[in-house]
Amino acid sequence: MFSAIARIFRTPDLRRKIGFTLAIIALYRFGSHIPAPFVNFPNVEQCLALTSGTEGLLSLVNLFSGGALLQLSIFALGVMPYITATIITQLLRVVIPHFETLHKEGQSGQARLTQYTRYLTIALALLQSTTLVTVARSGQLFGTTDIAACQNLLTNDVWWAQLLMIITMTAGTGLIMWFAELVTERGIGNGMSLLIFTSIAATFPSAMWMIWEAKGFEVFLLVLAVGIVVMGLVVFVEQSQRRIPVQYAKRMVGRRTYGGTNTYIPIKVNMAGVIPVIFASSLLYIPMLIAQFNTPQDGSEPAAWVTWISQYFTTGDHPLYMAVYFLLIIGFTYFYVAITFNPVEVADNMKKYGGFIPGIRAGRPTAEYLDYVLTRITFPGSIYLGLIALIPLVALATVDANQNFPFGGASILIIVGVGLETVKQIDAQLQQRHYEGLLR
Fold first, then answer.
1. Cβ atoms of 367 and 346 closer than 8 Å
2. 140-178: pLDDT as tens digits
3. Who has greater pLDDT, 368 or 317?
4. How many other β-carbons are positioned within 10 Å of the β-carbon of residue 247?
5. CA–CA separation, 32 and 77 (whole Å)
6. Helix residue spans in 187-203 (DSSP H)
7. Spatial separation of the C-alpha atoms in residues 362 and 368, rounded to whole Å
8. What SS3 class is residue 257?
9. Residue 162, class by beta-carbon neighbours within 10 Å (0-12 exposed, 13-18 middle, 19+ buried)?
10. Nearest-CA neighbor of 214 among 43, 398, 408?
11. What CA–CA distance (Å, rounded) separates 262 from 249?
12. What is the pLDDT of residues 398-417, one digit of tens each?
């Protein structure tokens, strides 16, 4: 293992790629701490010190931005607009035939879809930056707090100052996209995922330090031990897959024989990744948002339904909230897997090239068999996702952690997934130059 790591730094091309990637990551983290124009940064720091942040969707966006959202920096939006644009583009393939046609056209079609994703990212960045500046101007960025500093986050709230903040944050999102593409082309690859990995990893020390200060060294060690066990289990499940054997018949083209090979279709236990967790978190934020806008500002008693939502769907530590969150994740897992994996299309492609599953007829029976296997293997995957997503909520109720608890939810799924993918890419580049790689 150590000799393989030493070979990485002895290989000039790979050493240059890793150095370039680390330089881009350093620039990204540096920009996350530069405040946007007309931001009262001392007041922002005071609010961050006196409050535990926000709940719900803003907490998720703040996690993906590496804490830059609540600091109102030039990279405040982070990678969230790009993630949202990518998800929307994937979903539009189901309802817009042109998008599905582009997806099937190969590299040229993928380039067009990528361009559409970029345009949509800029549009979403404009919308989200406008919302963020409006919330910061109203004093509701850190929730309904009476701290005077949290009510004065901007030094100038005239229209042109707000417009300059919106343009700056949108340009920051465009710069992040460019950083990600540079890492993909000139670095070790997987640029956007690595920036997400960096953002989430940057919140780990502060989250663990908060637990140490609040509960002491013994609870800190217990959380660390549980976190290592959870990380090992996540690695095990993320690597688990059902391999469906496929055989290809031999074909004679001229005097040459083609086909006759044996391969398999890998169906992962967790095919949906972290997307169901994001969907469920976003959907559960809507009742909280509606209740917040319907809370009287004059101190009078709110309506009964507003009180009920505030009691059960605000903090996230209530059993009803956890149950609804768990069920939503299961539902969104099946929904997203049904969109991203089409058994009929896979069966048609196998039939076109002379492939078949042993014991299963080609065509419709193959599609039905793939759908049957996919439905059965998605069930434990959805349960696993739901349990992992509940870890931060359980930590919130037991050790008084925040929802950005590092060893659970979207954090651990992204950290492990991107980490495994990056190691595989480095291993593949090592094997191009040596017989051995990082993995044995």
1. yes
2. 776 655 666 677 778 887 888 889 999 999 999 999 999
3. 368
4. 16
5. 10
6. 191-201
7. 10
8. strand
9. buried
10. 398
11. 9
12. 666 555 566 667 778 888 88
Q: Is residue 173 within 8 Å of 167, Cβ to Cβ?
A: no
Whether residue 37 contacts residue 160, with contact meaning beta carbons closer than 8 Å, is answered with no
Look at residues 320, 313, 325 and name the one whose alpha carbon lies nearest to residue 289. 313
Confidence of residue 123 (pLDDT cuts 50, 70, 90): very high
Burial 65-104 (b: 16+ CB within 10 A, else e): bbbbbbbbbbbbbbbbbbbbbbeebbeebeeeeebbebee
Please report, as a single letter, which amino acid is at residue 33: H
Six-digit token pair at 173? 């999102």
**Is-contact 269 380, C-beta < 8 A?**
yes
Strand partners, 245: 264
First to last CA, the chain: 9
CA distances for 235 relative to 251, 255, 339, angstroms: 40, 47, 25
